[in-house]
Amino acid sequence: xxxxxxxxxxxxxxxxxxxxxxxxxxxxxxxxxxxxxxxxxxxxxxxxxxxxxxxxxxxxxxxxxxxxxxxxxxxxxxxxxxxxxxxxxxxxxxxxxxxxxxxxxxxxxxxxxxxxxxxxxxxxxxxxxxxxxxxxxxxxxxxxxxxxxxxxxxxxxxxxxxxxxxxxxxxxxxxxxxxxxxxxxxxxxxxxxxx
Length: 195
Prior knowledge:
Strand 1 and strand 2 (about 55-60) form a beta hairpin. This protein has about 200 residues and is an alpha+beta fold. The protein is built from four helices and nine strands.
């Protein structure tokens, strides 16, 4: 009986590793294939169809094409998984595994020809993010993070800096341009930090 339990345990560990590697491959393939779609559209900005979802909030045919590529890839490999994508927020929430997809993070940069944008995909399992991939197709930078295993940039481990003082650190920020009601509070906080 002990031998049987040992064999079953080994099989389950092997299966878990194989499944994890398959999920990582899916995430990486999704962001790279989505990135290839974006680069193709980035060469055709003059004819790109752009729709406004609201003030400073855009969706382009590039977003939709990249998202379709990613969604099809996930469905072909993991047909039982849920998908929540930015440009089509339909997800029933019935499955423990759900992919979160942002096919074009940085749409405003993209439509202005500024080459700072990315494709983002994450896997959520039972309401916890367990895997994430972000790909910058212009720089060919692949960021990958796994629960309990840290993060990498093109396969090399990365970490936050050990700077202890704000005036020695590199600080990046964005402004809440969609939420005008909090802008003045945000600017006061920004001023306290940097003044």
